[in-house]
Amino acid sequence: MIEVGSLIKLQRTKQNMTQGDLAKGIVSLSYLSKIENLKTEASPEIIQALCTRLGIQIDNSQNNMILEKCTEWYGMLFEANDKEEIIAKYKEIQELMDENLTENLLMFEIHKIRYYLVIGSYDKAEEKIKQLNDISGTFDNLHLYYWYKFKGNYNTVVNDEHNESMRLYKKAEEKGRQIDVSEEEIADLYYTIGVTHSKLRNTLEAIDYARKALEVFMKEYNFLRCAQCHIILGISYRRIKMYDNAIKNYNLALHLGKLNKNKVLILLAQENLGHLYTTTRESKKAITHFQAVLDDEEAHPADHLYTIASLVGLYYSVGNFEETRNTVNYGLKLLEEFGKYEEYKLYYYIIIAYDHLLKEEYKEFEKLMIHGFLPSLEKQEDYGNIAIYAELLASHFEKFHKYKDATKYYKVANFAYEQITNI
Amino acid sequence: MKKMISAVAIGALLVTGFLLAQPQEDVSIGPRHPGVLSVPQPTHFF
User: Fold this and answer.
1) For chain B, N or C: smaller number of CB within 10 Å?
2) Could you count the other beta carbons within 10 Å of the beta carbon of residue A288?
């Protein structure tokens, strides 16, 4: 059933028109308010008059054609697609929406949250959430499913607030049980919940959801989505020390990434294999996988910086100072070229910290760690890295027989481990 | 002198105790998660 009142309100606010502007000479202000808030059903003549003033027409004959275009566009927001194509399709549909009062409008507006996230317009995504919040009380269960899911996406992508994202995804999951949506759509939600559990270190839940998503993507032969699930399974199995399973899943992701020539997935699998072998202290294997990332000249600088930051610690820990120096130099060069120090602060601190250690600038190293690096990690509640780098600082103090300082930072590291393992 | 030796000994003991107690969790800079949006196309920066 088309909720005309909500659509009129949406079109009016989009055109920055006040209720007074729209109601003038047609209905009273209070009556328009009732129409917009679905407290009354206006006659077709009144609706027609309001639509004429808004410059839109009610033409149900176009509904199916618009729905078809919308469905195609919604699908594009979930798969590997060229951003230019997504934007072109969006503009085409927006033109139709501007001229027609269609029941597809609400769903289209809700999907704009995801669209803005996909194209990286985070401010617009936030604006859209605020705008839709006013009329969210009139959403049906299908609208609510996507509303919660995309608001969750916003919190994940923009704010890194995984607890809040999880709360919203769970609400979407609940709505998903009450509506008729495709298996693949629910699988995408399961995958999303799996990633969020993994980021929150809820390992068993992450495995459960990734497996449920994988089952559907396998049936649909959607290999790229399968590869993403394998990465989550790899991360989870590594955390519970089922290394063979983890390696198997990472290699499956790597294989699928290569089959589909998807660089993002290939690099992701290589980086995680490098990380796994670092944790199992198999340095040679770790270096092989990290090197594969560095050898890829077309990789995103963020992939290279992650790899460099991983490699400097690895080389340093095995006493290969020459390679540590080469890798630090490459990292410094890349940081200078790429800029974005704020965004990649973690990598910047790691590279600079090892640069000080190599140059035996111990005072500068201590200052960087105590006043820069560790406070920055604490601010982000990044307990995984606090544990690693507080321990690095503690062992440095221990080496110089500064046991009081060493104990202080071992305690910081210990506290961080407790946060990770919830003991 | 005795005081110094015992301080060093306590320090060393605390440090060793920590090393034995700590779990073997992540020792590098963490795993890399795939995104929750669509699978992105490779982006060329250079």
Assistant:
1) N
2) 14
A302–chain B nearest CA distance, Å: 11
How many of the other CB atoms lie within 10 Å of CB of A204?
Answer: 11
- Cross-strand partners of A57: A100
Cα–Cα distance measured from residue A354 to residue A323, given in angstroms and rounded to the nearest whole number: 12
pLDDT 10s digits, A401-414: 999 999 999 999 99
Place of tokens 């697609």: A81
Would the CB atoms of A264 and B42 count as touching at under 8 Å? yes
Give contacts of A300 with chain B, Cβ < 8 Å.
Answer: 42-43, 45
Gap from A360 CA to chain B (nearest CA, Å): 22
Of A309, A388, A403, the CB nearest to B11: A403
Alpha-carbon span A275 to A269, nearest angstrom: 10
Domains (ranges, CATH) in chain A?
Answer: 4-58 (1.10.260.40), 67-159 (1.25.40), 361-423 (no CATH)
Inspect the interface and report whether the beta carbons of A403 and B25 lie closer than 8 Å: no
With an 8 Å Cβ cutoff, are B7 and A278 in contact?
A: no
Q: Name the residue type at position A335.
A: L
Q: Over the stretch A52-83, which tens digit does the pLDDT of each residue have?
A: 888 877 767 777 888 899 999 998 888 767 88
Residue A172 to residue A112: CA distance in whole angstroms: 17
The residue type found at A133 is: N
Whether ipTM tops 0.95, in short, is no
CB contact under 8 A, A80 and B38: yes
